[in-house]
C-alpha cells in the first residue's frame, strides 16, 4: 500500500465528517489512478479485457468502456 493511501486512510479515521469526506475524496483519486495504471500494465502484458474485467469484478464491456480508448 502506498504512503498516500495510508495517509488518506489515517486522515479519514474518526475525525470531523467534512474533513473525512475530503480525505476519502483524495483516497478515491489515488485508487482511481492506481487502477488505471494496473489496467494499462495488464494490457501491456497481454491480458485480455475479460481477464482484467474479472479481476475488477465488472463486465468486459464496462472495463473496455472505461479504459479501452486511453
Descriptive account of the structure:
With 70 residues, the chain is mainly α. The protein has one domain (3-67). Helices cover 76% and strands 0% of the residues. The chain has four helices and no strands. The protein has helices at residues 3-11, 17-44, 49-56, 60-67.
Report the strand count.
0
Average pLDDT rating: 88
Helix content: over 70%
In this structure, how is the largest beta sheet organized? Answer: none
- Poorly predicted spans: none
Apparent shape: elongated
User: Which structural class fits the helix and strand makeup?
Assistant: mainly alpha
Oligomer: single chain
H and E order: HHHH
Number of distinct helices? 4
Radius of gyration: 15 Å
Question: Top keywords for this entry?
Answer:
70 residues, elongated, mainly alpha, single chain, 4 helices
Present the secondary structure layout.
Layout: H1 3-11, H2 17-44, H3 49-56, H4 60-67
Helix pairs in contact: 1-2, 3-4
Outline:
With 70 residues, the chain is mainly α. It has four helices and no strands.
